[in-house]
Amino acid sequence: MRKFIKALPVAVALVALTAAPAGAGMVLKMDLAELAARADGIFRGTVLSVEPGTVNAGGGEIPTVTYRLQVDEPFKGEWPKGVAEITMVGTIKEQDASGPFVRLSRLPELPNLVRGGEYVLFTTPPSPIGLSTTVGLGQGAFKLYASTDRQEMAANQLDNAGLSPSIDGPVNYTTLADAIRQQVGP
Predict the structure, then answer these.
(1) Is the pLDDT of residue 111 over 90?
(2) Predicted TM-score of the model (pTM)
(3) What is the CATH number of the domain that holds 61?
(4) CA distances from 39 to 70, 91, 152 (A)
């Protein structure tokens, strides 16, 4: 019985660790104020091009994707010639056309921006090797789309969960833009 009592705290700890979703412990969930504070740049943009590439670091090559975006509405940061270029770690993701199966990952994913798509992005400053990303990975990338009633809507990869007390779920773009302006000022 003593062995059982000694092993009980270890067993409880193991159950607690494995019961939590993998993504929940790997990415800090942020509200809009935290996203804005951590962002080097915030803008609404349209993806002009998506180019695969590599960067040399640590003695090897890291696969990258470079997104070139037309800055349609800047909120924070400077954008030379109204164009932003963001190089992220990753590869161009293709849809699996081999059936109904979807590959699941235990790791949070970087945003997968598509050419012609419109987004509001909260971006990090480029690293010394030129890599950047969106703040909080998918939290800082809001896809813009038209709702069934033709309203311009915005949602990030968490469906805006926890963004603010007044924003939880897809939101009208104007509401999101006004909330961003309140965070970053005029």
Answers:
(1) no
(2) 0.78
(3) 2.40.50.120
(4) 18, 23, 24
